[in-house]
Specification:
The chain is mainly alpha-helical. It is built from 14 helices and no strands. This is EamA family transporter.
């Protein structure tokens, strides 16, 4: 693959996450509960990606190795649970701002675990993106006394979990083909979801048929596609740059909430979206990718 395909893959993975909050909100409006939304999402998404595995090249791995890689999908499952929990008490356009803190958490995680000091360019890009996120989420015009504290906490926990998954996507199971690797991640996400929320809704045919459209959409964009895109791109761009590219989810989430939830946006919010996009472009300048690739090679040979 050409170098540009790797950052594009991560960018698309983040964009997929951006569409989720709107449809989770719509599911809540239809009376569905968190357990039903997350359960149907991971069940359908896991089935879809394993169907793809049947028609692609696979590598043989030991049961021990399979379990280890599957455990890497646990943060993905937890991210959905934590984020959707925050959406129960926060507007979609506000919940995304707390999840969005993964932009700097991911770089911090990479520094703590790999001792990889972020470049000046990454730090500037993160600063630009965070400033843009403040404007785009309309935080400056909100009455902070009306913001749910528990919703904020769940959103920040989701950001930590998302950062952990971004890191795992770039480090665990890199010897496997992307589809097989991402499918193995989904097993871990499915198991942790069903452990926290036993899928009792599956025994009610009416609930299953009603939640099916949401499960299909959320499963595709929340479980099948993101780990696949991250498996393709993260090993080459690294968690630090990867979290910058994943910030594509913010403008996507805001645009989706505008169209489908009829949330009102101010001019300053659109300016914020433009600032975020500028930060992504700045953080993804060509020499940044070369530096990231160089770091990946050093990790492999070091």
């Amino acid at each position: 693959m050409k170098n540009w395909t790797f950052p594009v893959a991560v960018f698309l993975g983040g964009a997929c996450f951006g569409v989720l909050s709107t449809f989770v909100k719509l599911a809540y409006e239809q009376g569905f509960e968190l357990s039903e939304v997350t359960g149907s999402q991971f069940l359908v998404g896991t089935i879809l990606i394993w169907l793809l595995v049947l028609f692609t090249k696979k590598e043989k791995i030991s049961i021990k190795r399979f379990i280890l890689i599957a455990l890497g999908g646990i943060p993905m499952g937890l991210t959905g649970i934590f984020y959707y929990q925050s959406l129960q008490t926060l507007d979609a356009s506000l919940a995304i701002i707390f999840l969005f803190q993964f932009v700097w958490i991911g770089t911090l995680l990479e520094y703590v675990i790999d001792q990889k000091k972020p470049s000046k360019q990454k730090l500037i890009a993160i600063g630009i993106i965070l400033i843009g996120s403040i404007f785009s989420a309309g935080v400056l015009s909100f009455q902070f006394t009306k913001i749910s504290l528990i919703g904020m906490v769940w959103g920040l926990i989701a950001a930590c979990s998302f950062s952990a998954f971004a890191y795992v996507s770039g480090t665990v199971g890199k010897e496997l083909p992307p589809i097989q690797r991402s499918a193995t991640f989904t097993i871990g996400g499915l198991i942790i979801t069903f452990l926290i929320f036993p899928p009792v809704f599956l025994f009610d045919p009416n609930t299953v048929s009603a939640i099916a459209p949401f499960g299909l959409f959320l499963g595709l964009f929340g479980v099948t596609l993101p780990p696949l895109f991250f498996s393709i791109g993260m090993p080459y761009v690294g968690a630090g740059l990867g979290t910058i590219l994943s910030s594509s989810e913010l403008p996507v989430a805001l645009c989706m909430s505008l169209v489908f939830l009829d949330e009102q946006f101010q001019l300053t919010q659109w300016i914020g979206v433009c600032i975020v996009i500028a930060g992504i472009i700045y953080g993804n300048k060509p020499h940044s990718i070369r530096d990231s690739n160089k770091s990946q090679e050093e990790m492999k040979t070091g």
